[in-house]
Write a structure and sequence with these properties.
globular; 8-stranded mixed sheet; Rossmann fold; 2 domains; alpha/beta; 27% helix
Length: 343
């Protein structure tokens, strides 16, 4: 008889962990030690469940790279004790956390599933119970004694997505996340149907946890009428190591001479410039149009189909590795954790 799976729940904060006080109607975090009292359905699982709650749960709007490090260290310290991990997290910045953890957890061979809810778990119509129950089931799922999933994912409203391919697109519906440039990894109906060809293959190497991130990054979003004086002031800010340039369409932007000069000046100072599209679907192809050829000639890196969330966290991760600019540029265009389509 095979040993039953064990799953560690890590509660960071967010709507899913809130209970409504029957007297005051105020929302407050509930005690995760009494998790099965709140969700008695968990008792029906033949899964060993343990939980760790952050001492001071945070709203996901206050998410920070230091918290990502805390989560990554928690997984590292418990990696050999559990078969899978479920991270309970606020939905607003969940895609950022999932993307960051995908880069920080190198050689991952176990599931790390982030989930949350749009309504607190203590509300009658909550989506939190189903999200949590199925996330646990996915984190515990094995085939021939090995985990079916071995990557960082988001499970929300019946679908499992690769975390670094997602973004939150809806704040009003239970179906809050999309993964426009990559297939869903699984869909939960009567049974959980895994899209096995879309899953990352498990890594046989030992887990390597990276805990150094560098957030000295400027985000510059293009818009018609972008102002020269303000743009110049932003790019002259002290300490910038990378610029995430959000362009139009397939990577296009203004060809005004002043803008080209500003980007060239930044690159000449050793600042990495990464070009991603503002479009929610599709990819950057620098050189397809004249309005992106000048960026390519300057040495701007094309970000292919990276999401904003994945691009910003990948930059933080690579800058934190103290690599040379040439290597960072190469790795930005390399598919490290399934985050981009290379062809």
């Amino acid at each position: 008889m095979s040993k039953k799976s064990s799953v560690l729940l890590i509660y960071t904060g967010g709507t899913i962990g809130m209970m409504q006080d029957a007297r005051t109607n105020e929302l407050r975090p509930f005690d995760f030690k009494a998790l099965t009292q709140q969700i008695p359905e968990l008792n029906k699982f033949d899964i060993g469940l343990s939980s760790i709650a952050f001492k001071n749960p945070i709203d996901s709007s206050n998410m920070h790279p230091l918290v990502w490090v805390e989560i990554a260290k928690t997984i590292r310290d418990n990696y050999n004790k559990f078969d899978g991990f479920v991270i309970l997290h606020g939905s607003d910045t969940m895609s950022f956390t999932a993307s960051a953890l995908s880069f920080m957890l190198e050689n991952l061979s176990k599931p790390v599933v982030l989930t949350g809810s749009q309504l607190p778990i203590g509300i009658i119509r909550t989506d939190g119970k189903e999200n949590l129950i199925t996330a646990i089931e996915i984190a515990a799922a094995k085939e021939k004694g090995k985990p079916i999933v071995s990557e960082v994912c988001i499970y929300f409203e019946y679908k499992l997505y690769r975390g670094n391919r997602t973004f939150k697109y809806n704040s009003a519906h239970f179906d809050a996340f999309k993964s426009p440039n990559y297939h869903a990894l699984a869909e939960a109906g009567v049974n959980i149907q895994y899209n096995k060809s879309a899953l990352l293959k498990p890594n046989s190497k030992a887990l390597k946890v990276h805990t150094t991130l560098d957030n000295n990054i400027l985000v510059l979003k293009m818009f018609p009428g972008i102002n020269e004086r303000i743009t110049s002031a932003m790019l002259d800010s002290h300490g910038i190591k990378a610029i995430l340039l959000e362009t139009f369409g397939a990577g296009n932007c203004t060809t005004q001479e002043w803008f080209t000069k500003e980007i060239k000046k930044a690159i000449d100072k050793g600042i990495i410039v990464l070009n991603i599209t503002q479009c929610l679907e599709g990819r950057v192809v620098q050189g397809m149009y004249e309005t992106s050829s000048h960026l390519k000639k300057l040495g701007v890196v094309g970000g292919a189909d990276l999401t904003f969330e994945s691009a910003i966290t990948k930059l933080m991760f690579l800058l934190g590795q103290k690599l040379g600019n040439a290597q960072i540029k190469k790795l930005l265009q390399t598919n490290l954790r399934g985050e981009l389509t290379t062809s």
